[in-house]
Write a structure and sequence with these properties.
This protein has 253 residues and is an alpha/beta fold. It has a single domain (6-10, 18-238), classed as Rossmann fold, CATH 3.40.50. 47% of the residues lie in helices and 12% in strands. It contains 10 helices and 5 strands, in the order αβαβααβααβαααβα. It has helices at residues 19-43, 60-68, 86-89, 95-98, 120-123, 129-150, 163-175, 186-191, 194-207, 221-238; strands spanning 47-53, 76-80, 107-111, 152-160, 213-217. It is globular.
């Protein structure tokens, strides 16, 4: 992956993408994903880890609802990583993350992830650059471990939202009664540091790219859902999965 400059990367769908036609395609993809997720669960030879990163109000929660709830909930789990607890801080930074890694047959979604430990920590100067580089190496090793020793396929999405769209969505949390429960006054302080966060992400894209990042234009939900759903579909198809046959009886008399 070449050097990514987020300021030069569009946050919107290409002009030749038709909204309604794309929504029809997405619905067809979701139906196919339902069958493939069932096959993944039945075969139980591979695991899928979906990592969702992005600024506040980039649409991570809505994406999970609109793409992944079309599948059997028994085969999907979601883990949100918040401020570490005292117990988590007493371990290495990957301890709480490794504990949530997917089992074979499962799709695990990380709503924020191990990358927070080299993003918010750097923006707020809680760790220095040397520590961040060491953590990046540990993250690369961790992802390689999952891939090589548990047949885990990792999809890493950065939801790329514009400053204007982010502000509009944050203001909706004040004015829309259905969204007021999401309001956190600190979100506006974090949004004011979007430039700093983008710089931290760009460093992350450069040094943690053994598993490539997918930059998802996130200003339009319909396009964001299409990109994530189609990427997951492509990944599952490549696994060439098959339903297991009847199990031989081991009963003896």
């Amino acid at each position: 992956m070449g050097k990514i400059k987020l300021s030069d990367t569009s946050t919107r769908a290409p002009k030749d993408f038709d909204k309604e036609a794309t929504k029809v395609k997405t619905q067809a993809i979701l139906e196919e994903l339902d069958d493939l997720q069932n096959l993944l669960y039945a075969e139980s030879k591979h695991a899928i880890l979906v990592i969702l990163q992005g600024p506040d109000a980039s649409g991570k929660d809505g994406l999970i609802r609109d793409v992944f709830t079309s599948m059997n909930p028994q085969g999907i789990t979601v883990k949100s990583f918040k401020t570490p607890t005292a117990a988590e801080l007493s371990h290495d930074f990957l301890w709480r993350v490794h504990e949530a890694a997917p089992a074979k047959g499962m799709i695990q979604i990380f709503n924020r992830s191990q990358y927070e430990d080299i993003l918010i920590t750097r923006v707020h100067k809680w760790i220095d650059d040397d520590t961040a580089r060491k953590r990046m190496k540990a993250i690369n090793d961790f992802e390689r471990l999952l891939e090589e020793h548990n047949n885990t396929r990792i999809l890493k999405f950065y939801l790329h939202v514009s400053s204007e769209e982010q502000q509009e969505r944050l203001n909706e949390r004040i004015n829309d009664p259905k969204k007021q429960w999401k309001y956190n006054e600190n979100d506006f302080k974090e949004a004011a540091m979007l430039k700093d966060y983008r710089a931290a992400y760009e460093d992350c894209f450069e040094y943690c790219n053994e598993v490539p990042w997918i930059i998802v234009p996130a200003d339009q939900n319909w396009y964001k859902e299409y990109i994530v759903a189609s990427s997951l579909l492509e990944t599952l198809k490549k696994l060439d999965m098959k339903y297991p046959g009847l199990k031989k009886s081991t009963t003896t008399f």
